[in-house]
Amino acid sequence: MPLRHPNSPLPKRDELQTIFEQRRPAYEDALSGLYRTVRSLLEANGYTPTIKYRLKRFNHYFGKLKKIHKGEKGCANGLITDLLGLRIICPFLEDLDIIEDLLATQFEIVEAERKGGQNSFREFGYDSVHMLIKFQELPLDEQIPHTANVCEIQLRTILQDAWAEVEHELVYKSDIALPNESIKRKLASLNATLTLSDLIFQEIRDYQKELRHRGHKRRKSIEQTLLGHDLISLTSPAELVRPAPREFEPTPYSLADGLEKIMHKALNAHYHNDFSSAIELYSQLIEMEMEARVRAMVFNHRGMAYFSVGDFTRASRDFTLSIQYDGDCFRSLINRGLVSRMLQQFDLSIDDYGRALQLDPYNHEGYFGRAQTFYEIQLFSKALVDCEKTLELQPDFPPAQQLIQLIHRGVFPLEQKPSSTSGVG
Fold first, then answer.
1. Per-residue pLDDT tens for 325-343?
2. Taking 70 as the threshold, does the pLDDT of residue 236 lie above it?
3. How many CB atoms lie within 10 A of CB 14?
4. Fold classification of 214-420 (topology level)
5. Which residues of 40-73 are buried (b: 16+ CB within 10 A; e: fewer)?
6. Spatial distance between the Cα atoms of 389 and 201, rounded to a whole number of angstroms
7. Which fold has domain 13-205?
8. For residues 320 and 348, what is the distance between their CA atoms, to the nearest angstrom?
9. Which of 20, 48, 98, 146 is most exposed, with minimal Cβ within 10 Å?
10. Could you read off the pLDDT of 205-215 as tens digits, one per residue?
């Protein structure tokens, strides 16, 4: 029902108000549903901006009709397009473009305009993205006359919204014109300050994202480095074999070196069997700030260094701390299982291997470690089962083959060979 200017007469106010109030509830329900749809869409994509919505009051609606009738403002077809309004207020400038694109995937965009983009640097006004989206059809007998079937959505930053609210009170709603150029310049200056603030906030956010990205890459690099050397491996099932220390000159280090550099020095010392330097470097790392997962890895590596110098008590303590920081670190459980066996705490050893295998049932080191513990407490049938499982996962694993041969050769005659292992070895 367009208001055709200039031939159509202005509808009677009382008649329009009666229709408006009768049909208001249907519009309010539809607008509330639109709000929930938009809120769900944004939250599903990780955004939780402030969202406001409103149905234009009758006085404002009728005032808009009068202006359209006089030709002062309105659409070419004489329909009101902002009866329904929804405003999305975001913290940062980049959010506006992202949310605009999200809305475009969900709704039909009838019109989009960036307010304030046409202003010169001497003019003041507010920046805002205005969109008209196609609104769900209401039955003809429920539509408010002279309105388009659209909803206006405004996208603003917090600072843009603050400026728009104040400007609306000082300029748009005021019946007093701005008195002089000085006041206009002050308003322009305030607007420029808020605009610059938005740009600075975005720049800070971009800087934080870049730091976060670098930190993520650094952590991944550290984790990959640590994951390459995170299990104690014994070449003999019967004894602990330590390689002879190599000649190694540790590089001087300081706090200024940073986490990654000290980490590489620690691993280098560890690799060259300079365990005292490695322990000192790992201890230095533990005093630094890092994520729990990385801290767990450092405790695991220091535990391995303590193990290598025969300090099983400290090694067990570090593996326990590693598990406390990362309960999913099956490698620390496997290492603690080995230490418990060396300390003849066989029940604890079997329990740790079992927990490790629950976390990673495809890790052959866990099965072979438990097989060694079963071997030492003369549960040979269970040791054979775990050795066979080890070889299923890692067919070319000589230590497991050697342990099976020891059992089958009758090294422990008190245990009869189980029939299930006949033919093995």
1. 998 888 899 999 999 999 9
2. no
3. 8
4. 1.25.40
5. ebbeeeebebeeebebbebeebbebbeebbeeee
6. 58
7. Beta Polymerase; domain 2 (3.30.460)
8. 12
9. 48
10. 888 888 777 76
